[in-house]
Predict the structure.
Amino acid sequence: PATLLLVGFVVIAALSARRITGAVVIGMLLVTVLGWATGAAEFQGVVSAPPSLSTFLSLDLASAFDLSMVTVVLTLLLVDVFDTAGTLVGVANRAGMLDENGHLPRLRKALLADSSATAIGALLGTSSTTSYIESAAGVEAGGRTGLASVTTALLFLLCLFIAPLAQSIPAFATGAALLFVACIMARALEDLDWANVTEATPAVVTALAVPLSYSIADGIGLGFITYAAIKLVSGHGRECPAAVYVVAAIFVLKFAFLG
């Protein structure tokens, strides 16, 4: 599998360098077929009936008011908010959609769409429905408008009926795509002010912490803590808005008591 992952990554990168549309999809399909042929992956079929809807509106409202659920809600809130914010800014930066100040226009609407999807997903009994960093692959393929999102949604709807085919795509195929996405996102590091240690160091900590912690939110949290601490200790504390210290303190409490 490791060899096939490397093959997939090389194919995707090479096709992307040649500006071939759909490089990520082509690379994943090629490696998937190779996996089936070599026995490294199993073909599980094509069509199946949609999954059961038994989880639809199957809510335990009484437990939601239990005091022990407070920590669960706070944890999910922190993870979802910072995962989404980090993903939106990162993907938008790659798509060239940030303004001259590095801000994402209409961020409020994007967060509203994300939070609405999360709430609806909970009613359906699914895992958190949110934005994912893998969207950078779509941006790299040329996706820039809402039409790309609508097309993706329709394809997800189709997957309800071809779940076995989707499950036949092995982890090393998607891993090759994710490795390529990581390379794409790493390009943003060139925009750092490397001459300013108080700015560059927290960014590097964040970039390393995200993959090592398997969490965008935890990576961003460590970045906030590092940024606030370095600014404060180096005598540049006034350069930080009060909100930075508040968020850093929240993450310190989160790591200390919630893990």
User: Anything to note?
Assistant: Residues 192-259 form one domain. The longest helix spans residues 69-95.
